[in-house]
Amino acid sequence: MFAAKRLLRPLPIRRTLSTTSCIRSDALFVHRDTPYNNPKIPFEFSTENMKRAEEIISHYPPQYKKAAVIPLLDLGQRQNKGWTSISVMNYVAKLLEMPPMRVYEVATFYTMFNREPIGQNFVQVCTTTPCMLRGSYEILDTVCQTLGGIKPGMTTKDGKFTVIEVECQGACSNAPMMVVNDDFYEDLTPETTKKVLQAFAKGQKPKSGPQGGRHTSENSAGLTALSSKPYGPGEFCSPEFA
């Protein structure tokens, strides 16, 4: 009887917990001072960029100049070799007379702001559904192998390339595609992807846009619609409306 009672006793429930990788989580939202990224490292806009910043700020009423935080962070990132350090954020906060925390919130929310140093050429490979269906993972593998076997999120040893995997870049009709710095390279194949990367490695800038020969996003087989001259006002209307 005692044994039967023991069998009827409910077993303790064990709950397994899953946690996000601390490294990835910290990289998104937490700043920790490092020798290359700390508030003691000076930063200020160059003379040319200060003129540009003043022009940007002038677009907003004085009491709302903090609305310029995104374009000024972008300007600072471009001057700072492609990444937004804590010094860049603090400088923008001081320039716009806003609490630094408000700038940190913006910089950690938008993925366009790189919180870590990047290579000379920033390669972003889209793997969202339209690109995925057109072979974007093969393109991503080609990029990584061409650059010495690195993985997404890594920078080559020579500092020339950083590769990441990104969401939709708005060029779905030209999938698969990747962005290198500010330019789109579309209709990619493993072969054309290698050619683009090899050109950048030599210090060249290959022609952006579709790499398969077609013009923008036109049908590669030629026009299938809108092939005749559009009619003008009054044509094909009832006489009383002509």
UniProtKB/TrEMBL annotation:
Its cofactor is [2Fe-2S] cluster. InterPro entries: NuoE-like, NuoE_dom, NuoE_N, Thioredoxin-like_sf. Belongs to the complex I 24 kDa subunit family. Residues 218-227 have a biased composition (Polar residues). Binds 1 [2Fe-2S] cluster. GO terms for cellular component: catalytic complex; membrane protein complex; mitochondrial inner membrane. This is NADH-ubiquinone oxidoreductase 24 kDa subunit mitochondrial. Pfam families: 2Fe-2S_thioredx (PF01257). It comes from the Eukaryota. GO terms for molecular function: 2 iron, 2 sulfur cluster binding; metal ion binding; NADH dehydrogenase (ubiquinone) activity; oxidoreductase activity. [2Fe-2S] cluster binds at residues 126, 131, 168, 172. Residues 201-242 are annotated as: Disordered. GO terms for biological process: mitochondrial electron transport, NADH to ubiquinone. The keyword Metal-binding applies. Keywords: 2Fe-2S, Iron, Iron-sulfur, Metal-binding, NAD, Translocase.
